[in-house]
Specification:
The chain is an all-alpha fold. The protein folds into two domains: about 1-90, Orthogonal Bundle (Rna Polymerase Sigma Factor, Chain: A); about 90-204, Arc Repressor Mutant, subunit A, CATH 1.10.10.10. Helices cover about 70% and strands about 0% of the residues. The protein has eleven helices and no strands. Helix 5 crosses helix 8 (about 130-140). The longest helix is centred in the C-terminal third of the chain and has 24 residues, at about 170-195. The radius of gyration is 18 Å and the shape is globular. The two termini are about 30 Å apart.
């Protein structure tokens, strides 16, 4: 979506224009669904509920959207992330994370090369809800700017130039940030998965 279209939608949202809301939904519904599913696991039955709650929450706060504070997508995805967190807050997050670690350990290190970018994991591993839990937990340990570029690059599949436009910095700065973010993610993921599956865990 170009800046002019986004500006029109933003103005419409502030005025309570129904058409602006419909344009927002049409532009981002699939993207929200895909990102939520990748973070929660495609097989997770709560994905639909989280997506629905995301747009309900967005509708309630749409009049307060301030385009000066960021892009529409960043605002909407921030709401989605809060809804994901609320969902897991209602669950026993420690139990879910412990189960994910147990699953990871049962793989006997078969996917460690994937974390080091030396090989791709099997499709059944990529689609596992346990992997989604571990990835989400590792991401939550990173600074917000690292989370943003990693999600944009590896979940949204955005090119570096587009990410740079969205976060309002140069392509070189995004490339540099991605390198640091990937390194930080690998470290967080390895630390998370190498710890014991039981006991007190990092909050989801």
């Amino acid at each position: 979506m170009d800046k002019d279209a986004e500006r029109e939608i933003a103005i419409g949202l502030q005025k309570g224009d129904r058409q602006a809301w419909l344009r927002l939904y049409e532009a981002y519904a699939r993207r929200v669904w895909t990102n939520v599913a990748r973070l929660m696991g495609y097989a997770c039955p709560a994905v639909a509920d989280v997506v629905q709650e995301t747009f309900l929450a967005a509708a309630r706060s749409a009049r307060n959207f301030d385009p000066g504070r960021g892009m529409l997508w960043l605002w909407l995805w921030g709401i989605a992330r809060r809804q994901i967190a609320l969902h897991y807050r209602k669950q026993d997050a420690n139990v879910i994370l412990a189960q994910a670690k147990t699953w990871w350990h049962s793989l006997d290190g078969q996917t460690i090369d994937w974390i080091d970018e030396k090989a791709a994991p099997p499709p059944d591993v990529l689609e596992a809800s346990e992997l989604a839990t571990l990835v989400r937990s590792a991401l939550n340990q990173l600074p917000a700017d690292y989370q943003t570029v990693l999600m944009a690059k590896y979940i949204d599949g955005q090119p570096t130039r587009e990410i740079a436009q969205n976060v309002q910095c140069s392509s070189d700065a995004v490339t540099s940030r991605l390198v640091r973010a990937k390194k930080a993610f690998r470290k967080a993921f390895k630390t998370l998965t190498q710890s014991a599956p039981a006991g007190k865990e990092v909050s989801l």
